[in-house]
Amino acid sequence: MPAANADVHALELAETAEAAFREVFGAEPEGLWAAPGRVNLIGEHTDYNDGFVMPFALPFYAVAAVSKAETWEFHSTYGAGSTVRSATLEGVDGWAAYLAGTAWALNESGYPVGPVRVAVHSDVPHGAGLSSSAALECAILIALADLYGHEIDRAEAARIAQKAENEYVGAPTGVLDQSASLLCEAGHVMFMDCRDLSREQEPFDLAAAGLTMLVIDTQAPHRHADGEYGARRADCEEAARQLGVSHLRDAPRHAKLDDERLNKRMRHILTENERVLKTAALLKEGRVAEIGDLLTASHTSLRYDYEVSSVELDSAVDAALGAGALGARMTGGGFGGSAIALVEAASAQKIEAAVTDAAAQADLPTPRIFTARAAAGAHRVR
Ligand code: GLA
Fold first, then answer.
1. Residue of minimum CA distance from atom 1 in ligand 1
2. Do 186 and 197 belong together in one domain?
3. Which stretches of the chain are assigned E, i.e. beta strand?
4. Residues of the domain holding 276
5. pTM of this structure
6. Structural domains of the chain, count
7. Which residue, of 54, 96, 207, 292, is most buried by count of CB atoms within 10 Å of its CB?
8. Looking at 47, 50, 177, 217, which residue is catalytic?
9. CATH code at 129?
10. 171 C-alpha vs ligand 1 centroid, how far in Å?
11. Does 180 reside within a domain?
């Protein structure tokens, strides 16, 4: 019997993970756990500034089939499939680092876990800015917690998965992706304050409002993403330091610094936090069609003030807006990856075509476009 909150699609993926587990390890797994990717509706690069975010989970999942074992054995179905075996959690790299790193972070955080065999299968698009790595971390995290008998609050679990990403994998990201994967609920978008991870789930029924949200994976590789991401963080920390606040979230609304670049970074963070609050207020009143301008303003701010957009993202956003989208913006870290567009359901096809045409005209990769649904967060499938 699947758990009550299990997603049907997660169940299908779980069967593939289970079959891989049987084939590679010649045994049945003790259980199956799924964790989704996400899009962020609004609130970009605010997480590491103690600000506000608004993600929802997508019905793409990383699924882990897991059993306790004598040594660490990680199998992934990705590509032709590969298996990594290790006597310890030291020095595991590549895709398996997300799994080993999460086990390491659990141990470091006072939740001892021993070795497991795991087969992972995922359909979260890789490199599309939809949190495929957080999905892996969160799936193994809830699996290990269950198998080793730890009850971990989901917000704390998000911090533990973030620790894996920051300290083991070495990517200096905030807590957005792991929180989204662990804490989002089906049919809802989650408003979260990254200062204390307090949150509210807002119903997000686009169909009832005659609307659709398109996710446009530009298929453009993330360029310079790591270095540039770290540089933006460093700019924010320097701006906060000059203002004498712990995080830019606390900067006075009209604060001014001598350095124009730091001013632009700060302006993005301050205005973006305001846009998230306005978006949350509109959603609370059921005025979802009215959030479009806020989404578009967020993109403009990310493009010109935060400077994390790309030719492909701008092309997708401009084409969607030109063809009548109510609002559009890049989502996630930027420098490639995906954009979202809020559209009237009746004009979705026309807008998809306009986005695809614009990419072709500009000689950019053909984007992969799909309709978003707010899916269930991480859960045990069986
Ligand atoms: C990436 C990071 C997140 C967040 C976003 C930008 O997805 O992993 O922590 O900073 O970029 O909002």
1. 333
2. yes
3. 31-40, 52-53, 55-68, 72-76, 82-86, 116-122, 188-193, 198-203, 211-217, 327-331, 338-344, 368-371, 379-380
4. 203-371
5. 0.97
6. 2
7. 54
8. 177
9. 3.30.230.10
10. 10
11. yes
